[in-house]
Amino acid sequence: MIAKNNIYFRPIIKSSIIDQILFNIKLFLFLFLAAPMILMSFILGGIFPFVRNWLPVIFYRMVVWLLSIKIEYEGNIEKSKRCNLFISNHISYLDIPILGSQFPLKFVAKLEVKNWPIFGFLSRLAGTVFIKRARSESLLQKTVIFKLLSEREKILIFPEATTSDGNRVLSFKSNAFSAVENQNFCIQPLVIIYSEINGMPINRWLRPIIAWYGDMDLKPHLLILKSLKSIRAKIIYLEPVNSKDFINRKDMSKYIEQKIQRSYSYSLSRKKLAG
User: Please, are residues 10 and 4 in contact by the beta-carbon 8 Å criterion?
Assistant: First the structure.
């Protein structure tokens, strides 16, 4: 059968012994370097802002290197450096090291992440802002995020409030923009898209290899991810906007959602044509 020989029916090619050896060497080097970095963060992070801000960036770059993720860029990155709030679509836990490897960012995550094994520890180490998704906590969350933005911290929020299957961008939650409503903050909309695994274009049947959503178990997903030889991702920097230019947070949320949705859909359709 010709169909059975089609590479798309074998998206995960079993890694060779050499591939496994190379990954294990990289993993050893990663752990060897990560341990003193974590210790340094504990000891010096509270004293020196440079250490506190840039050690997570270096760590994220090491994760990107470990998993052989190649990152492409589109748009004006220089403009983003003047922004306070970063808004992105959300597909996988890989979004965090990919986006966090650019420059110091504080991510906003649901409170449950704080207690996750490994990921929770690393999130706390990176200064993640944990929020409890309850209406009674909304004012406190708004105050915390506004304070950080006012102190010129760079904050990244995923307004979908969960990961998607990668086939579309989910509707944004407008309360993600509460802290900047009627304020004067520069907002950088981002689009993250995964285009290839093992040199093959990703289609809707292959996206679950990268996307982590619904009730997927983490451990099997990580094991599949570990077996990949390469992943190609792209970060698209859309034109920044200012929060003061919107009547309210709902208008702001809808505008940025539409910009990200259009860019994501266009990138998917362009990728299909190229394939």
Answer: no
Q: What is the mean pLDDT of residues 189-205?
A: 92
Helix, strand, coil percent content, the chain, rounded in steps of 5: 50, 15, 35
Cross-strand partners of 242: 186
Map out the domains of the chain as residue ranges: 3-274
SS3 115: helix
φ and ψ of 51, to 5 deg: -65, -45
- Answer positive or negative: Cα dihedral of 81, 83, 86, 87: negative
Q: Are 83 and 240 in contact (CB under 8 A)?
A: yes
What number does CATH give the domain 3-274?
3.40.1130
Contacts with 85 (C-beta within 8 Å, 6 or more apart), sequence order:
149, 154, 155, 156, 157, 179, 180, 185, 186, 187, 188, 243
Length in residues, the chain: 275
Cα separation, 252 vs 246, in Å, equals: 6
In 3D space, the residue among 242, 236, 210, 217 whose CA is nearest the CA of residue 99 turns out to be: 236
Sign of CA dihedral 60, 203, 207, 199: negative
What would the mean pLDDT of 50-68 be, rounded to a whole number?
A: 90
- Decide: 34 and 62 in contact? Cβ < 8 Å: yes
CA distance 85 to 249: 14
What are 186's strand-pairing partners?
242
User: Does pTM surpass 0.70?
Assistant: yes
Whole-number pLDDT of residue 271? 59
Angle made by CA atoms 96, 98, 103, in degrees to the nearest 5: 90
| CA 54-59-64 angle, 5° bins | 125
Q: Which residues pair with 150 in a beta bridge?
A: none
CA distance 26 to 18: 12
